[in-house]
Each structure stands twice: as structure tokens, then as C-alpha cells.
Design a protein that fits this description.
Elements lengths: L1 H16 L9 E7 L3 E2 L7 E8 L10 E10 L6 E7 L2 E8 L6 E12 L2 E10 L4 E9 L7 E9 L8 E11 L1
Antiparallel strand pairs: 1-11, 2-11, 3-10, 4-7, 4-11, 5-6, 5-10, 7-8, 8-9
Amino acid sequence: MRGLLALLLLVPLLARAQTVTAPASVATLISSQVAVVGNGADTTEDTLFTVTIPAGTFVNVGDAIHIIARGTNAASTDTKSVRVKFGGSNSDTFNTNIVGQTTWYIDEWLWKTGTNTQAWTAFHNLASNSGSNGFNSNLAITDTAAITLLITGQNSTAATANSIQTSAIMVWAVH
């Protein structure tokens, strides 16, 4: 009986002794915007959001930027494009030209993969539930200096102001 009692008391101790805790990631909000910003009355690419990623954000391989953004599109068949640009390079682009695609959402991650090299993955979804994702590991942005991050909109069919708008954006640095 004492052996059984000793075993019953020992099992919880053994279970606790094998618990492993992963190191915590630290996310720091770099910027947020909760305001409607739309494209101009032209067919050129217009900046809807801009933030400067501070120098020193990408120190170690695996450091990341996380972007969540949402916005609206005019209910038209015009060809409308939303782009995320990191250091001047497109990291995500999607086009809409369906009347029912009136809202959009982006969830994107950019990672440091080496010295001045980055990869990104993104998911975006439209109101018509047509979602897609992408991955690219070919970014080569100098990451020891500040980096400009943009979200742009372009109606390449008609010069219609506010046919592409942002309404909420958050950008985090994750280490």
C-alpha cells in the first residue's frame, strides 16, 4: 500500500518536472491608423498609409513585421489594386474588379531571413469570400536602416476618388 501511495504522490511531480516553456515573443506596436483614407481622382497609384519601420527592427534572423489592414472598394467593375510595399518593393498585391468585392482584408508577415534579405507571406480576403495567399523569399531590402512601409491603392480604369479606401491598419514589430 505504501508503494502505491508513493507512486501516486510522485506522478504529479514527474509531470511538472517535464514541462517546457517556450521563450516568449515580444510584439511592439509600431503604428496604427483608424481613419478612412482613399485614393485620388486619378488612375495612378496613391499612398493610403505609410509608416517608417525604425532602424534596428531587423536585428536577428526571425525578427518580423506583422501587418493587419482592412478597407473598402467601390462597387464597380473597375480594375482596382491594393499593394503592400516594403522598402519600395511590392510584397503583396491583389486586384478586384467584381461589383460585390466591396471590402478587403490583409494579414501579412515579413521576416528577416539573413543579412539584408527578407521573406513574406500574406493572406487577403475580399467580401465575396475570394481569399488568396502568397509567399516570396526574394526581398533584398537593406534592413540596418529605417524602412518605409506603404499600403497603396490604384483604380487603373476610372479616375474615381475614394474607389479604394483603408479604414484600419496595425503594424507590429515581433522579436
